[in-house]
Amino acid sequence: MNMSRRAALQSTFAFAASALLPKTAGAQDSWVPSKPIRTIVPYSVGTPPDVVTRIVAAKMTTNLGQSVYVENRPGATGTVGLGELLRQPPDGYTIMTMLQPISVAPALYPGLTVDLARDLNAVGQFTSYCNVLTVHPSIPARTVAELVALLKAKPSDFNFGSGGSGTPAHLSGELFKQQAGVSATHVPYNQFPQAVGDLLQGRLQFMFVTSSVIVPHVQTGRVRALAVTGVKRISALPDVPTMIESGYPEFDVSGWDGFVVRSGTPARVITRLNLELARAVQSPDVSDRFVALGVDPVAGDPKQFSDLIAAESRRWGNLVRSTGIKVE
């Protein structure tokens, strides 16, 4: 990481950490875990949320002197893992990585009885990242405008993939279709890596892919990046414009990860978990690894993360309803 980038992160983390510090000397020790903490990742091993969670959990283990271990419970847009969390006692010994697809689950699954605001307590956000609109090199498009022109001319020739209905890759694709006024066929895969593999092989023509996954393939020329979905360019792909720069001023899509616990978890437990999460994320070894993956480290407080989950649930729920997206 360059020095200006590191300095900026350290300044941000110093402020965040000071806001999270307890007001009394003994407050941080008001809850001390007496057994290992189980961290549910509702996606498969090797997926982006799994990778970043393992980095954070390892650092929390070191700092706490108590094991914070990861257990993968993939399936049904993250709701399998969510269901497992809600079956556990609200004592802080089971936490879960919460990410954007789960926030849209109530809209995707009308029969789902979970109320995110009622059933979950936020601990804190720890990452933010963008997707990258990429095409296979066989597609003669080097800008978003050129891709849109191709899509309008021959929509039946274009497929885009995702790791399943309601995932960031899918919702980004649907938002793109809506804002650009184009058509393309969505191909949902059981596993995200399968979709990426088919993009690399040319069986998919374009796809919105998490930056941490696709940047190495862009750098080796196996795919071509047309735009990133955040509000700013990313250091790993400095010459790739944002969707906003490409003519879509309302296309701001950022992925994120954070920890949640079951509602009813004591406030002192959440406070300690949040403090340890912030300490892990602000450590140089964790933040440097995140940045190398194209991921921005975040040291968020519980209210900020709770508000983000609610806002994302409204935003993407509206898109699901307006486009008629169904689980396939």
From TrEMBL:
CDD domains from the xrefs?
A: PBP2_Bug27 (cd13578)
Range of residues in the leader sequence: 1-27
- What SUPFAM superfamilies does UniProt report for this protein, alphabetically? Periplasmic binding protein-like II (SSF53850)
| Pfam family for this entry, one | TctC
Keyword Magnesium in record: no
Gene3D superfamilies according to UniProt: Bordetella uptake gene, domain 1, Periplasmic binding protein-like II
**Is Thylakoid set as a keyword in this record?**
no
Q: Which UniProt keywords apply?
A: Signal
Q: Which PANTHER family match?
A: BLR1237 PROTEIN, TRICARBOXYLATE-BINDING PROTEIN
Q: Which family does it belong to?
A: Belongs to the UPF0065 (bug) family.
Name used for this protein in its record: Tripartite tricarboxylate transporter substrate binding protein
Species the sequence originates in: Achromobacter pestifer
Its taxonomic placement starts with:
Bacteria, Pseudomonadati, Pseudomonadota, Betaproteobacteria, Burkholderiales
